[in-house]
Structure formats: structure tokens, C-alpha cells
Amino acid sequence: MKRITALILFLLCSVGLIIVYSGFEPPLEPADDQQRSEETQPEATGPAIPSDDRSGSSPVNLIPAEPDTDKNDGSDESEVMIYKPGTYKVGTDIPAGIYIAENDGSDISKVMIRDSLEPEKEKPNIIITARYMTTRGRFAERDNYIEAVSKGGGTPVMPQDDTELARLLRTGATEYAEILAERYDGLVLSGGGDVAAHFFNQEHHPASNTPDETLDKAELALALAFIKANKPVLGICRGMQIVNVALGGELIQDIPDLLGIDPGFHQDQQTRHPIDILPGTWLYEMFGPQANVNSTHHQCVTGIPEGFTLVAQAGPVIEAMVSGNILCVQFHPERMLDEGMLPLFEDFIMRCS
User: Fold this and answer.
1) Residue boundaries of the structural domains of the chain
2) Is residue 300 annotated as part of the catalytic site, yes or no?
3) Tens-digit pLDDT profile for residues 250-271
4) Among the options 266, 297, 298, 334, which is catalytic?
5) CB atoms closer than 10 angstroms to residue 67
6) Catalytic choice (273, 300, 332, 352)
7) CATH number given to 125-352
8) What are phi and psi of 148, to 5 degrees?
């Protein structure tokens, strides 16, 4: 019995020595961090659209995405793909970035990739006319009109911004009118003095102011050029009268004398008077059947040109008319932006866009 026990002990010692000198190590339990990392790895289910990663980095060795991919041959990285803006099927392996979902009505989900946010649409460039004051050597200021066009969404273009516009308004060189109508998106004919009577086949009325015939020629030419080019025109006060004369119409040269209306009703900047607006017209959609407006004029149109629609009146005085994108008002909305008149300019600028 003692011999058997000694043999067992000898065998156990021999196994222990073998284990020590062979370097064998029993398996250890995995570290907590490693175990958690392995447990949270998602199952591989094929390529997919990456998450919203705004780091700007692009992966390498990607499968080309159709339809728009280019290879960057100048890079040291192999097969680095540069993805153009375009539409790609979900599941395409594409660079991380900002993606905008697109539903085109089909059963295939798509993602629209863009280089960046869409740039703001270019604002239309709108000419604003101004009288050249010879004695002062400069053009009249038009701050109210500039503000109105700017707030309406356009870029004002003044004579000092364009040499040919300045020459036209300063000298009456009408050959520039068609060039300017081609170059710009819209025209605002601003308010001002009386139009020379001979342009509408009448004799000068004693109550009429001394006209600026150079400005008359320039604005008449501009009005016709923009109308011919099918570009939007906004005529304000004198501007409405210019459009009417350019198209063969006539003017009432003095409202108090010829229509028997109190001068203060139409000639006081601070006064507000109602106008009646015809249903279904351009202004009716903005202001309804009636609006309070300001006036600073003693002349007005008599009748409206062929193809125009009467829009608003104050008694016998025509206050607004329209034909397509030719919009004319006898009052001064540029001075009433804080009184609800901004939509008028927004509508006009939209037509110019």
C-alpha cells in the first residue's frame, strides 16, 4: 500500500514539473472593458448610409457610388473617392456628412448629398431713376426708394452705380435705354416733377411746374425699353404718369383747376385719404376693397392705356393701374413701409426674380 501511494505522489510531481517547464497558462477571464466593447459591436449587415458625422473626413477604399464619383488621382491615399452632389440609393457606401432625405414618389429610398447649404438666390437688380440736379452737380437722393427695394428683396441700382444709366439720366442719351433694359431685372420710375406737356400733345398749363425735359426723355425711353423687353416696371406718382405718356396717354395737368378737388387732398405728404380698389385686382389681393394712402401730386393720368386694367380710384382720380408686370400707383408706398405697404414692393421684386 505504501508503494502505491508513493507511486501516485511521484506521478503528480512529474506532471507539475512538466506544466512549469512547458510555459502553459490556463485561460483568463476577459477584462471588463474588452468584454463590453465586444458585446456592443453591431452585427455586420452590409454597407449603409453613415450617421450624421460633421467632421468632414472621408473614408478610403470605398466602393464607388453611382452615378457621380470621381477618383482623386493626386492623393497619396489609394482609391480615395470624391462624391459629387447627387442622388444615391440607400445602402451606398458614401462619405460621412450631412444628408437630406428625398422622396421622389418611387419605392426606392434616396438620399440627396450636397456640398453645403444651398446658396441664397441672387437678388434681382432694380434700377431706380433719379433727377440730375445740374446746379448741385449730383443726382437727387432716393433713400426711401432704396430702402423699399432693399426690404422688398431686391438690389437697388442707382445712377452712381452704372455709368450708362448716369449718362442717360444726366444727358438724355436714349440709346442706352435698351442696353439697360437688357442688363437689369426691373425698373422703378420714381416720383418727381411735372412732365413736359408737349410729350402728350398739350399746351403748358399755368399751374404746371417747369419740366426737366432731359429727365422726361430718359424716363420715357427707359419705360418703353423695359416694356419692350418684357421686364417688370413699377411706376410711382410721376412714374405712373410717365408710363401713361410713353404709351400714348395724356395727363390732367392740374387737379384742383381741372377737377375742382381741394389741393390739400392730393398734395399733402402727411394727409392720408382712402382709395377704392376693384375686386380681383393686384392691389385687392393685398389690401382688400379700400386702403388709406398718401399723395403729393397735382397731376394725374386721364384714362388708361390700351391693355391696362383700372385698379383703384379716389373719386375721379385714377390711383392705380396694371398690365401684366407693369404696375403703377399714383401714391407713394415707399414712404409708407411701416404702414403696411411693404408687400407691394415684395410682390414687385418677386416679379423681377
Assistant:
1) 47-119, 125-352
2) no
3) 999 998 888 878 766 656 666 7
4) 334
5) 9
6) 332
7) 3.40.50.880
8) -65, -45
